[in-house]
Request: fold
Amino acid sequence: MRITGKTPVEEIYQKACQLYQLRILIILFLIPLYVLTCKWGNFTVSNLWPLYIVVLIEVFINHPYKAFYQNPKSGMEALIASVVIDFLAETTALHLLGNVDLFIYASCFFISIVYCALNLPTVLTLQMATLASALYAGLIVLGHLNIIPQTVSFGPDLTSVQETAIIFRHIAFFYLIAFFIRSLASALVKKDDRLEELLWELRETSDKVKYAYHLQTDYFARMSHEIRAPLNSILGFSQLLIESPTEPLTEKQKDFLSRIERGGKHLRELINDVLDLSKIESKKMQLSLHEIELVKIIQSALDVFYEEALAKHLLLGFTEKPVALKITADELKLRQVLYNLLSNSLKFTKKGFIHIALVKEPDGGAKITVEDSGPGIALENQGAIFQPYEQAGRATSKSIKGTGLGLAISKQFVEMHGGKIWVESEPGKGSRFILTLPPAPPAPQSEKPATDTPLAN
Reply:
């Protein structure tokens, strides 16, 4: 992007530092090239002290000193001056060496003109072309008048008209380079400006989307709290009516109340999951860490689902486990992960088995595998099941219901611990849900987390 009067002075100073570095690299390349080609071609070079002077000027005098970059105006003037000083110093060095090599001269001009076209106002390209032409013609004229040594030669036996024609040809070449570079740079700068505008629009859109998403998450959390209070009342009174010893209900009434209770519990599970997910995504979920024994936790999770597995004639077992395996983690959240995985396996597995295996990792962490003989999951659906409200490829009938949030929450909980969770499955061959946990979670972010309120049952 070109520098203007509105460009911050810090950015102008950065451009000057970049130019300084580029200039030093060019000197390191061109001066050895000049010396080597002179020796190789047996050109007469009486001394090299002008080159040493140029190096001193470029390194010390033309350095971007912070004192010259106090405001945008002085900074832009200092940057333009450094470009002009650079070109004048190199031209003077060539003259003092006794040979204004057109290749070196044009190379210095080309580099200066490109920098001006890309970074400074476009009028400077023509001004630089005028300066280069004037210096070149002035060296020739002053040399012919014997005012200064003649350092530009076009060869013997040329008339004044022929030499003038060559000078005009070279000057036209300088202006041609200037016009070409100016046009090319204008197109590049326009594209760069357009890209910058698009980036700003993208940032603004991203900020708006994030803001809307946080509003939506906050709205869901608030609504969930509001709905949960009357829902608990409905469940409580339904249970009281069903279990009332003084006023027995008819079978039909019990059936209706049981349906109300089941629907209410399902709705409460959905609300609790939405609350969990909203807390995680708004960075308000906090881990309560302490050392836990994974073998005991997994065994207790299996005990919770033992009766349900027995009723469905499923073989539920802890097939592989170490004697003991301790890690630092949040016990409640890991229990919820295990409950979600076992609940899913029981929900979708009609016959066969559900196995859990626990293996100690080389770094002291843990690898837990929950394997079932259910219907399996197609490869194209394996990524989707960890997204909120997705049950892709798992349902075998319309009677199987769920919130679609269990695996998404489990994934978030595992990642909060610094672990990973994934699935390995094929349709008709069951599923293996694998999660890995480190010995201890990574250090928390430097944000101030909100207090994690317990979920109501």
